[in-house]
Design brief:
The complex is a heterodimer of chains A (89) and B (286). Chain A contains 2 helices and 5 strands. Chain A has 89 residues and is of the alpha+beta class. Classes of the chains: A alpha+beta (89), B alpha/beta (286).
Chain lengths: 89, 286
């Protein structure tokens, strides 16, 4: 069970700031978020079902893409933060 | 009459008192620079060290104090990218009185930049952004020494181009360059002020030699595939927040965002500060 924080504007989509989501990996957590909130959060995964590279997903303050990607382990009380990837200047 | 006496008399005759501060107006500063055979910047520093404030800085010095103003004028700052956010950073640094500004950008203005890039006016389309902003900085503040290169800063040249800077400011538009520059800043022991935007959201943070906050968040795999908007409001807020960090670092005032990422969304007025200085800290502000 991960403690998930949705950072603006994603909290507007989910209607909540904090959430408890099941999953043993961050990929499973994302799949369960999509199951719970539907297509509006489908951006979390790409066409191949991997973690999207267009969004920042932090697992205990580390980017999941800097760890094991989809397979990054999630334990009870792991903190997940989902926020926009802002690339522009 | 010796030059020292002449300068002393000239300053005493020309200075005025504004709100309890001795100030010298720009015309007199320029005249004094000629008498001293010094640059405008050197002359302004000479005056500040005698507790005489160049009048143009009164609004800033009332906040930073004269010592803060001296620190700003003695500082050397590189701005990497002179487009939207970078253009406004140039503008703010010039008005603050950052003493030496170094600009890098290999891009030229195009029509779609008019919505947000301060140097992009119709007659500047096709011109190099770094060169236009260098001219604008000189027009705003002749006390600032500005150097520019109409090229993108490339990895093999980081050390030679950036060494000696007090702060490096990020206004590039891709994560790969950000990570490369951040790594170079760590090697050079220089603070790196990160900023990025998309739609109504802004991220600002400070990477210091003792933290890896950018590397902890981003991977070289992150992409810019999702095209986001870049309204001028977002661009200006990001630049202002980054330059605020510059002021705090140079003047050694306030609380720096070192190791933190500030997320601000002006559409919803959400403001969040995420602590990356200790990965195990989950309390308080996220």
């Amino acid at each position: 069970m991960a403690k998930v924080r949705y950072v603006s504007p994603y909290d507007k989509i989910t209607g909540t700031t904090w959430d408890d989501i099941e999953g043993n990996t961050i990929g499973e957590v994302c799949q369960n978020i999509i199951l719970k909130y539907g297509d509006e959060v489908a951006f979390l995964l790409d066409d191949k079902g991997d973690l999207s590279k267009d969004v920042v997903i932090l697992v205990d303050r580390r980017g999941a893409l800097t760890l094991d990607g989809f397979h990054t382990a999630v334990k009870n009380d792991t903190e997940v933060i989902i926020m926009e990837y802002l690339g522009w200047a | 009459m010796g030059i020292e006496r002449e300068v002393f008399d000239y300053v005493n005759k020309s200075k005025t008192n504004v709100d309890g501060m001795n100030v010298l107006k720009m015309e007199s500063v320029h005249e004094l620079a000629k008498k001293l055979n010094k640059s405008i910047k050197q002359t302004e520093l000479y005056l500040l060290e005698q507790n005489i404030l160049p009048y143009r800085y009164i609004g800033t010095a009332k906040f930073t104090g004269l010592q803060g103003m001296i620190r700003l004028l003695k500082s050397r700052v590189a701005i990497i990218g002179c487009g939207g956010v970078g253009g406004f950073i140039c503008e703010l640094c010039a008005r603050l009185g950052v003493g030496e500004i170094i600009l890098f950008d290999g891009d030229v203005y195009e029509e779609s930049n008019i919505n947000r890039q301060i140097g992009c006016i119709e007659k500047n389309i096709g011109k190099y952004k770094a060169e236009v902003m260098a001219d604008r900085i000189k027009d705003i503040n002749s006390g600032v020494e500005v150097f520019y290169k109409n090229t993108y800063l490339q990895k093999p040249h980081f050390t030679t181009e950036l060494s000696g800077c007090d702060v490096i400011i990020d206004s590039v538009d891709n994560i790969q360059d950000r990570l490369n520059i951040s790594n170079a800043c760590k090697e050079l022991m220089i603070p790196f002020i990160h900023g990025s935007i998309g739609n109504s959201s802004i991220h600002v943070g400070v990477s210091m030699p003792d933290n890896n906050f950018l590397e902890n968040i981003y991977s070289y795999n992150n992409t810019n595939n999702k095209l986001m908007g870049s309204p001028v409001t977002t661009v200006m807020i990001c630049a202002a927040l980054q330059v605020a960090e510059l002021v705090k670092i140079i003047c050694e005032i306030g609380e720096s965002l070192s190791g933190y990422l500030l997320h601000y969304n002006w559409l919803s007025n959400d403001l969040i500060k995420i602590d990356f200085s200790n990965n195990n800290d989950k309390g308080g502000q996220i």
